[in-house]
């Protein structure tokens, strides 16, 4: 907002316009990239649940214009009198806090969030137990250190992120604005959040000041009055209010309010009265807050950790029960047994050591067992996962195939805790404008009076040869070049000499005049040459006006009362006698022009269905049929189509319309419906001039990307604030919709109507599915013949469906549909649709958008992706990942998502296996040492096992390993189904891993035990053997599963084994430690090396055999594709079809 815009003392932006330098104001909702929001805190709003279905305050918002605003349902704002305004209610201030924590809440809240990890609670309990003297197996400080380090590192990271949010808040809340105080403007802190666009469209929106206030000068005369408006609500498309000023009561509507974040264009300044502020503004009410996101794998991992905890308890129970039996059997020998001696004979008087009796000894044995076996739950796993995610993020950021040259933007990884979720996405919810499209329209072709002037023979005009006009010695050229049809261009130049020329003249005159475009004059390096830039609310209108200018009908000037159009070098002025803007009911817009010859004509453009229904029945039927055929061909090409018509008005018709229009415009109640009725009365008996075809420039690679995603088993839903016809057109051009699909359209305005529409649609979708199934069973291969269904539903219907019992029916219907398009939806409704799917399935969801209107949807989805496009950085700042183009989503999911999921799933299972092997070796040893919980493996080796001996290889493999190359994953999108089927991490794999772990631990323990049974080897020596055997075993186990070897992997795996030998040698070379020189004695014997070899062979052969048999007889898709990579060259494999497993929908919740 312009800094000169004054507001009331305590309120800021969302003002009702009261005066302006001109009557028509264009606001531009392009977001400022410098002002951004990270998270939104709604703690001040109370505990009222968010209603996603509320397009406005409630569903009544849509009918609000039909009735008077009651005092109970209204907000009363005294103009220029904040004291009186706040007499009854203290309205919200405009300061916003987006930080997540405060100084007081940081420690408890951050710890609370971190302890959502079950393992952290487990290690906290272990650390507390180790502080008790009776249970102090390890040093007290050492037991706390691992958990403390993990908590501290995470807390520092969270604190830094929140510090950045608070710093941004401070900057934004202390911006200055001009505030009218005592009839003079003063600079005060604005305390704004951000500059933001609400509906996601970066085009001009025309706003008007009322005639009753337009001439008032705030600094020269006292302005007083009362504004009665609706209470704060989320409806960004509507506003209902009235204003009492100078004894008059004036009606206010959406065209008289500027929402927070609008930027003034074509107007130097405006004076407004703020009616909503701070958390009550529509942008804040449409934000659902930023929830903490956790990886799905990490969530599932909690159940395995619970099982491992139960398994640990079982081991400890076995040890304590056995210890109880042993103590009972040897109770008479406890005083003298050398390794248990209960009596202390060193003093003259015999004393007992710390012996607490049989019962407590058993209990303490149990707790000490928990402490000794604690690494069964791998706390190092969480640190490893964070490091792996950082490495994965590095390679995603460095991926040149996700670099956007046009915006010079690289891929951004803004959330490091959900990388692996990218490999399990089932639903993609996408915005349209700026996400699927570039939001750039281009005129392609036209059908005028039954003649198709196709773009096939069109040529692009150069700036030197293109149309231009001279005005006051200056040359004006259109900013955008448009391809022109030579034949049509010649007819337009010839003027109205022929009948075809008359139709072409009227057609392009309609394109140039029937719009809300505002022409802007831009300078060029040549002072004589100026460019005309057409700015408007609709990019379609911009494309049509540029096309008209290229054919010699150049819009030069527009005011609220007239337009000036240069027609083939002749400037003509037309009086704008009336304008009916587009609405979703009529699906048309019209302008009434007064010609220089005193004639009056109405020009209308709109959707084909709405235009043909109001055409003159006496019109040539052949022209209508040919035009319809052309429209069908244009639509088949994915072009956006509009039909243009006109008729001349008699004096009496114009007078009747004028009186009705004035009455409707000044009505206090039902103004919108009255204006709609007046427009419908004048928009009839039209002569259809022709139709236009406009291409909404899709982003590069969007159709191919959507096709790849759908082949991968991902369902793509498009949620847009745009009108229905536009969304459908984009659906065709992006290949989301096809001509073979049956479309189910739901446009309802009541609960009962929605219920009936949903029931009918469910029946229809089931019939189509049944018919498809019958065809498959009788005549074809199952699954090859489908009757795809596309659901198209608008935001009005969603008002009654979301947050009601109809949600379940909508979801049931959506499950039967291949495609879902939601049109005219508010930002919070987008989040509501994502929530609807999340609540009813276990599937992963991803939301992608580029505007501030997508923030709620991005934050609600499991994974949020922001497009760093033309609509600011609000979506990027709220997202988990950010990139420059929609097509990069294919690489992100099918390549990096697959890799990340495969690596992380394997790493989790491997960490469980690695720690369990070590714990079970300790367990077997306890069984042979009278359950005293002494260990042959030194304390230092126990500590270093998870830090040095085995940690680096799993991190390196988790970052670098690739089960398939990029080309294969992109060529066969079905391979992404491995994530949907959870092939890399599931309970079956977990149990197989645990069985293998049991076998390998038994082999590693009992082979040395049997080999040295009856010998004189000491505990430290055989403990070193077990240490080295386990480390070599787990590293070779990992090496068997590595698919892509490189020098880093070799160094990590073999280097860890060498590092283990070095560490054991150093530990045994220190005289003060237990086991001095043990390793040097045992390695001299051949038995030591034979034991190592026997352990490796016996432990790994069963695993190797099972892997070979499994891959030979029941291979999965990934394994088949891997074999194709190995044994076929690229040229050979290009001709090979790989049959993939079907991608089935998982069960609903």
CATH architecture of the largest domain: 3-Layer(aba) Sandwich
Largest sheet: 9 strands, mixed
What is the CATH first-level class name of the largest domain?
Alpha Beta
If helices are DSSP runs of H or I spanning 4 or more residues, what is the number of helices? Answer: 35
Number of self-contained structural domains: 5
Query: Radius of gyration in whole Å, from Cα?
Result: 37 Å
Distance between the termini: 46 Å
- Principal-axes geometry comes out as elongated
Question: How much β-strand is present in the residues?
Answer: 15-25%
Low confidence ranges: 1-13, 18-51, 54-67, 192-202, 772-785
**What is the CATH topology classification name of the largest domain?**
Calcium-transporting ATPase, cytoplasmic domain N
Main structural class: alpha+beta
Protein name: Phospholipid-transporting ATPase
Keywords: ATP-binding, Magnesium, Membrane, Metal-binding, Nucleotide-binding, Translocase, Transmembrane, Transmembrane helix
Cofactor: Mg(2+)
Domain P-type ATPase N-terminal: 77-143
């Amino acid at each position: 907002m312009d800094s000169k815009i004054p507001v009331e003392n305590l309120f800021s932006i969302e003002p009702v316009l009261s005066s302006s330098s001109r009557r028509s104001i264009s606001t531009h909702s392009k977001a400022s990239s410098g002002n951004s929001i990270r998270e939104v805190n709604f703690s001040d709003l109370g505990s009222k649940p968010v209603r996603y279905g509320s397009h406005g305050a409630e569903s009544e918002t849509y009918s609000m214009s039909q009735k008077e605003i009651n005092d109970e349902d209204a907000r009363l704002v005294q103009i220029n009198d904040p004291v009186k305004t706040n007499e009854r209610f203290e309205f919200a201030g405009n300061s916003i806090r987006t930080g997540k924590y405060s100084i007081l809440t940081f420690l408890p809240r951050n710890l609370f969030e971190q302890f959502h990890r079950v393992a952290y609670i487990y290690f906290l309990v272990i650390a507390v137990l180790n502080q008790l003297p009776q249970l102090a197996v390890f040093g007290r400080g050492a037991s706390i250190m691992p958990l403390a380090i993990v908590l501290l590192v995470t807390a520092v990271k969270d604190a830094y992120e929140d510090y950045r949010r608070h710093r941004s808040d401070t900057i934004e809340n202390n911006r200055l604005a001009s505030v009218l105080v005592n009839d003079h403007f003063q600079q005060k802190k604005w305390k704004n959040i951000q500059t933001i666009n609400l509906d996601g469209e970066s085009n001009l929106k025309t706003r008007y000041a009322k005639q009753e206030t337009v001439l008032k000068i705030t600094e020269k005369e006292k302005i007083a009055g009362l504004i009665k408006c609706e209470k704060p609500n989320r409806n960004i498309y509507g506003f209902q209010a009235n204003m009492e000023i100078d004894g008059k009561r004036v009606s206010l509507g959406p065209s008289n309010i500027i929402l927070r974040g609008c930027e003034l264009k074509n107007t130097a300044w405006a004076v407004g009265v703020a009616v909503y502020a701070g958390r009550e503004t529509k942008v804040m009410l449409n934000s659902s807050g930023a929830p903490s996101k956790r990886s799905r794998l990490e969530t599932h991992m909690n159940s395995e950790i619970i099982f491992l905890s139960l398994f640990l308890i079982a081991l400890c129970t076995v040890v304590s029960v056995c210890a109880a039996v042993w103590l009972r059997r040897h109770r008479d020998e406890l005083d003298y047994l050398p390794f248990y001696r209960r009596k202390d004979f060193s003093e003259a008087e015999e004393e007992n050591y710390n012996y607490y009796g049989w019962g407590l000894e058993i209990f303490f044995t149990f707790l000490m067992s928990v402490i000794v076996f604690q690494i069964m739950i791998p706390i190092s796993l969480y640190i490893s996962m964070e490091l792996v995610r950082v490495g994965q993020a590095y390679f995603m950021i460095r991926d040149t195939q996700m670099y956007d040259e046009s915006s010079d933007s690289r891929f951004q990884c803004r959330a490091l805790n959900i990388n692996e979720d990218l490999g399990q996405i089932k639903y993609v919810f996408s915005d349209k404008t700026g996400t699927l499209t570039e939001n750039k329209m281009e005129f392609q072709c036209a059908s005028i009076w039954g003649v198709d002037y196709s773009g096939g023979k069109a040529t692009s005009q150069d700036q030197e040869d293109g149309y231009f006009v001279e005005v006051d010695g200056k040359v004006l050229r259109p900013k955008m070049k448009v391809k022109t049809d030579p034949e049509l261009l010649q007819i337009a130049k010839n003027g109205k000499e022929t009948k075809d020329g008359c139709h072409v003249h009227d057609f392009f005159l309609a394109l140039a005049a029937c719009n809300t475009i505002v022409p802007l004059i831009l300078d060029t390096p040549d002072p004589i040459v100026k460019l005309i830039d057409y700015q408007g609310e609709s990019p379609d209108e911009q494309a049509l006006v540029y096309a008209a200018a290229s054919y010699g009908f150049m819009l030069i000037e527009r005011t609220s009362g007239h337009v000036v159009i240069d027609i083939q070098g002749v400037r003509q002025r037309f009086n704008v006698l009336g304008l009916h803007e587009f609405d979703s009911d009529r699906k048309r817009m019209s302008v009434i022009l007064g010609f220089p010859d005193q004639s009056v004509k109405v020009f209308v453009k709109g959707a084909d269905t709405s235009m043909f229904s109001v055409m003159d029945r006496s019109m040539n039927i052949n022209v209508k049929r040919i035009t319809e055929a052309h429209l069908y061909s244009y639509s088949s090409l994915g072009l956006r189509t509009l039909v243009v018509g006109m008729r001349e008005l008699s004096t009496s018709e114009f007078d009747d319309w004028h009186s009705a229009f004035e009455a409707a415009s000044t009505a206090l109640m039902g103004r919108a419906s009255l204006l709609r009725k007046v427009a419908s009365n004048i928009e009839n008996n039209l002569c259809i001039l022709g139709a236009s075809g406009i291409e909404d420039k899709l982003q590069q690679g969007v159709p191919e990307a959507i096709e790849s995603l759908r082949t991968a088993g991902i369902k793509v839903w498009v949620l847009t604030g745009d009108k229905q016809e536009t969304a459908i057109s984009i659906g065709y051009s992006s290949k989301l919709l096809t001509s073979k699909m049956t479309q189910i359209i739901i446009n309802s305005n009541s609960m009962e109507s929605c219920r009936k529409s949903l029931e009918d649609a469910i029946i229809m979708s089931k019939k189509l599915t049944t018919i498809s199934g019958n065809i498959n069973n009788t005549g074809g291969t199952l699954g090859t013949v489908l009757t795809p269904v596309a659901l198209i539903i608008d935001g009005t219907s969603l008002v009654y469906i979301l947050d009601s019992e109809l949600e379940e029916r909508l979801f049931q219907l959506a499950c039967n549909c291949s495609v879902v398009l939601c049109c005219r939806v508010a930002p919070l409704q987008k989040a509501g649709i994502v929530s609807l799917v999340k609540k009813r399935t276990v599937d992963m969801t991803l939301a992608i958008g580029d505007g501030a209107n997508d923030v709620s949807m991005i934050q609600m989805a499991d994974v949020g992706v922001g497009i760093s496009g033309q609509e600011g950085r609000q979506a990027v700042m709220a997202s988990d990942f950010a990139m420059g183009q929609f097509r990069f989503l294919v690489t992100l999911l099918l390549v990096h998502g697959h890799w990340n999921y495969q690596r992380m799933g394997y790493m989790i299972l491997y960490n469980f296996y690695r720690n369990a092997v070590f714990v079970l070796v300790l367990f077997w040893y306890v069984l042979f040492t009278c359950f005293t919980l002494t260990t042959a493996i030194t304390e230092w080796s126990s500590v270093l096992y998870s830090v040095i001996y085995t940690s680096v290889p799993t991190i390196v493999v988790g970052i670098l390993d690739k089960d398939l190359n990029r080309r294969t994953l992109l060529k066969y999108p079905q391979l992404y189904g491995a994530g949907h089927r959870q092939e890399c991490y599931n309970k079956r794999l977990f149990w197989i891993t645990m069985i293998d772990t049991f076998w390998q631990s038994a082999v590693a323990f009992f082979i040395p035990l049997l080999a040295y049974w009856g010998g004189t080897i000491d505990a430290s020596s055989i403990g070193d053997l077990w240490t080295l055997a386990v480390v070599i075993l787990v590293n070779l186990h990992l090496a068997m599963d590595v698919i892509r070897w490189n020098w880093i992997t070799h160094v990590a795996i073999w280097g860890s084994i060498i590092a283990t030998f070095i560490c054991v040698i150093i530990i045994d070379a220190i005289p003060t430690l237990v086991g001095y020189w043990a390793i040097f004695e045992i390695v001299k014997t051949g038995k030591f090396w034979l034991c190592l070899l026997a352990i490796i062979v016996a432990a790994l052969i069963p695993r190797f055999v099972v892997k070979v048999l499994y891959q030979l007889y029941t291979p999965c898709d990934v394994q088949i594709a891997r074999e194709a990579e190995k044994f076929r060259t690229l040229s050979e494999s290009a001709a090979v079809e790989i049959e993939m497993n079907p991608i089935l929908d998982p069960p609903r919740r």
